Amino acid sequence: VQLQASGGGLVQTGGSLRLSCAASGSILRFNAMGWYRQAPGKQRDLVATITSGGRTNYVDSVKGRFTISRDNAKNTVYLQMISPKPEDTAVYYCNLKEVTGRDYWGQGTQVTVSS
User: Fold this and answer.
1) Considering the chain, what is the average pLDDT of its residues?
2) DSSP 48
3) For residue 24, what are the CA distances in angstroms to 19, 94, 102?
4) Distance between CA 2 and CA 53 in Å, rounded?
5) What was the pLDDT predicted at 51?
6) What average pLDDT score do residues 95-104 get?
């Protein structure tokens, strides 16, 4: 399984940005996909996840501002970021978790939010 993330960049506070992650390879039908982020000097933390059935989960700090969605036919997950804040600046990593528990990670995409 390979994950290709895209869409990162520089965005101003109050703007918007959409991250995409396309999965390819031998993908089990039932899995969860999501986004994690890692700021300099910090650990990698959960941002949002979505199951193949569409159930979502968000870290409290992004609720109401970020929306995760997925296109199962394309094995692609999206993260719509509305009104990002400087504290959202991080490298964002795409994740796919198979029902077996095995994890796959994308290469990371930098998001920088300027005030």
Assistant:
1) 95
2) E
3) 17, 13, 15
4) 21
5) 93
6) 93
Instruction: Extract the tokens encoding 5.
Output: 């993330």
Contact in structure between 64 and 48 (CB atoms under 8 Å): no
* pLDDT tops 90 at residue 110: yes
Q: What is the pLDDT of residue 22?
A: 96
The confidence score (pLDDT) of residue 80 equals 98
First-residue to last-residue Cα distance in the chain:
37
**Signed CA dihedral, 60, 35, 92, 19: sign only:** negative
Average pLDDT over residues 82-92: 97
Residue showing tokens 């890692």: 38
Q: What type of residue is 109? A: T
Q: Assess contact for 53 and 32: CB atoms under 8 A.
A: no
pLDDT of 79 strictly over 90: yes
Q: How far apart are CA 20 and CA 35, in angstroms?
A: 10
Question: Could you give the count of Cα atoms lying within 13 Å of 98 in the half-sphere of its Cβ?
Answer: 12
Exposed, middle or buried by CB within 10 Å (0-12, 13-18, 19+), for 4? Answer: middle
